[in-house]
Amino acid sequence: VAAVRTAGVAASLILVALAAIGCSICTWSSVAVVVGVASAAAGALGSDLPCGPLLGVLPPLGCFCCGNWGLLVPRDMLEGGKRSARGILPKLCEQILSGVLEVVELRGAQAGGVCTFVRDSHGGIDTLRSRTVKPKRGHLATNLFRDFRWEVVRRAMRGFFASPRSLPVVLLQGHSRFGTSSSPAVSETHPHQWLGSQRELVWRFDAGKGGWRREETTVCVTVTHNGDFDAFELYGQTVSNATLGLWLTRVLHHCNTAKGDSAKFAGLMDLMVCQGRWFSSVRYAFVRVCMLHIDQASGWEPLTPQAPNSVPSNRFFAEVAGCFDAMWSKWVGQAPDILPEVEDIERLATAVKGELGGRLSQRAMAVFDEVDLTDEVLTAFCLEACLCFFNQDLLTSIHSFFKHAEGTFGVSATCTLWPHSIVLAAKGQPVSLAFDMERPIAVWSSEPSALTVSWPTAPGGRPKRLATARWDLNDAAGEAVELRVFEGASAQHHIEAADKALAGGLSSARYFATPDIKIAQERKFHILIRGSSLDHSPRPLSAAAFAARWVRLRAPPFRTARGAKPAAAGPSLDPVEADIRDIPAILSDIDSSWTDRASLNLMSGQKFSGCLHRLLEQKQDDSIDVLVFGVENSLWMGQQFAADMKRIFPKLNFMAISSNWVLGMLQRAQGNIEPKNFAIAPQHFRLAGGAIALALSHSGTTYPTVWASRLVTRLFGDVNGFAMSADFDTVLANSIGQELTMNGFTGALFSTMAGVRPAEPATAATIAMHHTLTCLLTACAEQTAKRSGHRWCLERKRCDGECELDVDEVMDLKRLTASLLPASERICGMTEYRLPRDSEVRTELLEVGAYISSHLTEGWYSTFWMCFYVYVTVSFHVPLFSMFWSRYIAQKTELDEDDVPFQIIDYIFAHIDAHFYVFLAVLLMLLHRLICGRRLWTRFTARTLVIVDSTMNYKLLRAYGSKLGALAFPFTGFKVAGQNGEDHFVHEMTHLAQSDVILLVGRADGRLGTLAASEGATIMSTQQAKYICSRPSRGIEAISIGHNPWVKPGLFRRAVALPTDSRPHFLSQQLLGTESGPHAPGDVVAASAAYIENARQVSASHFEPFAWVTKDILKQELAKLNITKDRVSKDDAFAVISNIVKSHAEALDIDPAAFLVGEVCPTWMTRSSLGSSDPGTPKTPMAAQSLTASMGSLPALPATSLLQTVKTFRSKGTTTEFDTLSLSNLLAVLRGRRMHSHIRSLQVGRKSEAVKEHIQARDTMIDIYKGVRKCFNGWAKYTLQMSPAVLRRQSSVGPRRSDRKSEVPTAEWRVQEEFRRRRRQHFMQFKAIGIEGKIFHAWHTLLHEDNMITPLKAYLTSSMNFAETRGGERLSERKSAFAEGTIIAEEKDALPISGRLAGQAASGSEMLDGLRPLERLYETRVAAAERLLASYVVLHRAVKPLSTLRFLRYDLDRSESRLRVASTPAPVPFVEELPECIEEAGMVSVTSEEKVSGQVLYTV
Fold first, then answer.
1. What angle do CA 1306, 1310, 1311 make, to 5 degrees?
2. Helix (H) or strand (E) segment spanning residue 174
3. Residue 1429: pLDDT over 90
4. 1094-1112 confidence digits (pLDDT tens)
5. Rounded CA separation 83/91 (Å)
6. pLDDT tens digits, one per residue of 352-395
7. What is the DSSP string of 843-860?
8. Where are the alpha helices (DSSP H) in 213-261?
9. Theoretical Cys-Cys bridge with 393: which of 61, 275, 1064, 1105, CB 3.0 to 4.6 Å?
10. 767 and 1429 Cβ atoms separated by less than 8 Å
11. Per residue in 107-124, is it b (16+ CB within 10 Å) or e — as a string?
């Protein structure tokens, strides 16, 4: 962007200069040219300036959830000291942290900073810090590390080109920020330093170098903070963050301009960290002992910015520190290696107290007099100063801070005195560490998933895992650890040396090595650890407790989707498109995880359904049985899940609410915000005994969801907590008690299999969670139905009322759920094997997206070409119309330039040019619309996309569309709104019914009987929005996406019909005749009503079997019987009707032998012909009773009317007795209601028989299929695993033998799940290349091998014989399909959905009631997901061209805030102290804590 701005300014100035040179002759025309060029250049220059209209107004300085991250590694361990490891910031470290930051910035990345240690020109240690505010459309990692390199250059220039030098250990302390307490200006950005670098006298102890030594060096404390620092306790009272800043300004005699909360944390650390420094120790002791109130710092005036500073000056503290330093120098002179105990420190304090009176000046003594320093206070002051000198190191200072701080914290702290050490602490915010001790290297992050990044490798190389193990801080209770690098010798040597050194205030916290290190082995570098809890009585972290939470990383290294390419050669994909392409593979993984008995998802689903069944058995009151909570996308999908579960289990009480409202309901501390629009009061918010709490969060670290789950599981002791996220390894999992260190799996976790998805416009994450919830719903229904064992009955009553679905309906639901995968392959253009696939529906979706894109890009095209025209015509003085007049018309006239007519005409053409300039943009827009095939006279303004779909879909798409265009430039931007077409759309959105509005309408499949009304309501809402404007050019444009191909003429501009051939047929489609083709929902509603009334009064165009028969066709049929008369006998009429029906029996789908002519003829025809010899006519009217009872015929004409007609004809002297019929009478029979009713009854009867036959055939074949499938899959897996390629990979896929023998506990359940997934991925890769067919051939021919193992051969032979004898032709088709590597589609005669209801329902209303549950579930769980996915494709195609426009490029996958994970209160604050005792009814008190295997377990 900067290059574009510079180029625009330069080009504008160059144009003015060229025009002035070219028009050196001073004429009016030359002056006009120069003025015109200068004006155009001024306009262009203005547009290129920072506040110009083209680039938009830049935010003012400082108007711009956070994340900690960093790295600690010895420099020599970075690939053996190669070039990539050189420099202050090695290239390898930059690449590693860029990968970490790619994930961490999901917590927000408006600004960021990084800090490291360098050796300055004096030989001391100093900090090198760089902070940057990311541009709106920039990448934080790119800008951050670029600015860091410039900071190195600036530091070298300030030191007269004495460049700072690197240290042997690389320690990079970084932070990315999302503004919560202040705007992300540079001054507000982490890492924070309050005092900065200060020169100070420092005492150090090193037993190896002779004990104590004194030197003047640079001291600087640097901190990062993720979370919210709300308040701090000073002198017994809670002080707000703003007041704390004023107090620190006076105490430290230094003002920090940062307004945020984290800067105050840096100031407190500058005050508290004082080990080895008498000046800081004296200052801190004075604050702790001599000051009694915060107002004492301002002369007892209210602490305001204008209040004075009455804290003693630094000169006073330096003078007092000199006394302590002199006395300590005397002690060290006598014992250089002294390590004073408590008694020695007290004696030192007493000695210093005796020397103060004689050494201090009168000004210093006056300060003591002002604070009323009594003898007791002076003694306490001296003792406190000595204690601070020896104890207040980094770790102790962090603990001191947390004793008095309120808020949420994930922090890191460093100091130049310990350049190889860093302290990390967590309380309320996650902090995770990853290690690879072979290098060694330590990386930390606020996002655990960020630690799975890969080690930097060459392009195309196999990714290697950065770290081999991970360890998470206990942020719920609060914990701090210190990492320090030691050089040489063994770990045991350094541990023993550290025990003899100055340990600090937390002397019980001793160093130890990680579990994978042999402490007696000598290594070049070691990373040792020590830690402590953050309680008021700190508990040290032991090596055993650390090892109990040590987790080996098994997941494959994470690679971002940026720059990824599809399997086939093609252009690079943006992260959003890459996510869309991955959806079929993710859905396949989900389906596999819910069918594999070894998968964790299935285990958790079984436990969930078990808890649900117990709730059904003990349901007594109206308390909440199942609580589902989440934020944004997760919440909206959870609400739909709860609604669907309520339909299946009406006996239970389901509730889906926001995680913020859960916090508001359950909090009792200060800062509580109660939800004001919720029907349940907090005091009545109760969960039933054994209730289920399901927390939904894709990232697993969303702040409100994590803390809501912790609070629910703590307050309600018998609640069954479950969590669903993108992986099993999340902070949310730890919150419900499933830690990676646990060998046993609790069955409380669900994974959506989506993995890390950094793109803010969520696609794969939402589809994956929705489908996982669908699988969970199906599993619950299946388990409950199997336990109940009921079947559908006529009265639609259940044995126990537990589940609305029986076993057969659950099987149908599973078939519907499985249809989502093949549909997604067509929509996404990728197979489940990640291979490209062409499909017609995807082409149509992309065309619709391109059409919408033409709306959004017309502003850019018109502006670009208009600017080009203005530049050319004004710069070269060639306006179109004036040039045409002067060069072509004026030369052919005899008028002189001085003539008045010539001048008038010249001004007229100039006036036309002026109008052309003014309206050129409009004309270009009209031309663009004409080329793109759009309406011409619509509004010339930005477009508004309105999503009209189900509640879940429109909310998800509204968020998705707005995030796609979050970084779009002003005149290419658009707005996104949405509403439910069946609910509030007409009332809320129809006032927007203007020509700048585009409706994206999602329609339910109205061909299904119970969904026709839903589609009809949506179409009615769209009509009301479209036809508000009287002129067609002024109304909205509507685009339809649905499964019904029917489109009302003139309503939709474009329409896409999603494929349904992979979906099983529904019984309602067969009953209503809507199995294929388009059908208007109004006709389906009418057909359903007619079916309910048992009267088939439906539209002839859709349901009359012989609507095509005319008199000419009848004459042709009569000619076949050699009948040429206009009237025919009744016997001939019967023969003609029978011939017509039999010839079209196949098309009508009826059995011709069951057709009864007597049932379709009027009574007056059959009365005199009952005794005829016509074979199609029954000899007794009782034959009509063979019709299906539910398809009864319509009543015949009354006999009285027939007698009256006969008498009338006889009175006129007619000779006929109705022995002949006219062609009109024959047509009336063929197209009458009797014929229609009889044909429909035959169709239903035949389909019912086919259904029964299919059920019997399926039951017969099910054992055959199971045997063949089991046999084949077993041999396929055996063959694949024995292949050389797989054998080479087994060591990397399966668990290592060394891991099983290790004494360090591992999460065996997590290892097995990862092994299962990796094994399936390999198997899918072989299937993708068509090797499955070859394996089947090998398996089939193996029966003839002589060297085959006898038991296996016997098993194969018996299974094959059984299959071949009972399978018949269908098994042969299955084998040939396997051999060809194809998949057999569902047979045409497959049992339709709810097919078992055929012939069982007593009436049409009962039938439709039986069909309703599955059709509704299909709409909410499958059809809505397909429409959602199709809309994702359309909107991505529509918006992507905006991101690639020249000069206006931006990234689709992010917004300016870069916030995907709300890691801070959003917006409900929470005091992160879990309750210890709750006395209210229904809540359980926590009585004790036990420490088992290094874990804190809370017993109830």
1. 70
2. strand 169-177
3. yes
4. 533 333 334 467 766 777 7
5. 8
6. 888 887 788 888 888 887 777 778 888 899 999 999 999 999 99
7. HHHHHHHHHHHHHHHHHH
8. 241-251
9. 275
10. yes
11. bbbbbbbbbbbbebeeeb
